[in-house]
Amino acid sequence: MSVSIQHLPDRQLQPLLQAYRASVSRRRLRTGATTAAFIFCIFVAAWWVRFDPVMLFDKIGAFGSFFSRLLLLDDGAYVFTDVKEWFWGWKDWLKLIGETLLIAYTGTVLGALFGFVACFSAASNLSGFRTRWLARRVLEFCRTVPEIVFALIFVLAFGLGPMAGVLALAIHTLGALGKLFTEVVENIDMKPVDGLTSTGASRTATIAYGVMPQVWPGFASNTLLRFEHNFRGASIMGFVGAGGIGQELLTAVRKFYYADVSALLVMIIATVFVLDILTGQVLRRLNGQERP
């Protein structure tokens, strides 16, 4: 099978080549201008925040020396040489780790429940403009204010303790998961929803049978990921007196107990590793996947 290639006359080909070259030139000019603007913004931002590369390289040694001190006990020996001395308070620290997990779990559950309710009002394919606008503004407020600020407010209102941390995480989780849930809902196939609506089904029935079968894997994945994130957030809630391991970590930092700081960090990191493994297994089971 032969293929014939048609050649245009020069008088027709030259205008096309000129138009192509002009298009390529404009595209390259836009790319160069965008790159130059991006680099310029980086330099302006660095100048505005007084970022000093010279100071960074001069002081990088102090940064490294701090981490080296984390590996030394009070007698100067490496922490690995006496693990019992390194983790001398592991029983009390485990209780605080457990309290931190409970703070993160309770805050995640409460936030996910309220985010679940709010996402259907914030979704553009399920709600009208006014309802959607109000729901999205509420979610934006909840996730814009940092958890530590909410925790400080609740500590002032309710006093020291885990309750302030739970409420702070719950409100921030409501805003974050509400946004993620909304995006999942807005990407569903609307045919089942339209079919249920045409039969006169109620909004609750439409959501239960037309929306939920499509969105629950995404909801579960985002909630488990948020739980892991909330544990890290709950770990610093103690800085403002909102319970958990953070108070002990702050005390160790202030008193320059470097070995205690490293031991606490190891326990927090190990807990995050375990949470990542467990949440991954739960997700695979929910999605019906075999364990690799």
CATH 2nd-level architecture of the domain at 87-286: Orthogonal Bundle
Overall mean confidence score, pLDDT: 86
* CATH homologous superfamily placement of the domain at 87-286: MetI-like
CATH topology of the domain at 87-286: MetI-like fold
Q: Biggest sheet, in brief? A: none
Structural class: mainly alpha
Helix and strand arrangement:
Layout lengths: L9 H39 L4 H17 L13 H4 L3 H33 L6 H16 L2 H12 L3 H25 L4 H8 L4 H32 L11 H9 L3 H29 L6
What does this structure look like?
The protein is an all-alpha fold and 292 residues long. The chain has a domain of 200 residues: MetI-like (MetI-like fold). The chain is 77% helix and 0% strand. It is built from 11 helices and no strands. Helix 4 runs antiparallel to helix 5, helix 9 runs antiparallel to helix 11 and helix 10 runs antiparallel to helix 11. The longest helix is centred in the N-terminal third of the chain and has 39 residues. It is extended, with a radius of gyration of 28 Å. The mean pLDDT is 86.
Gist?
This protein has 292 residues and is an all-alpha fold. The protein contains eleven helices and no strands. The chain has a domain of 200 residues: MetI-like fold (Orthogonal Bundle), CATH 1.10.3720.10.
Which features would summarize this protein structure in a list?
MetI-like fold; extended; 292 residues; single chain; mainly alpha
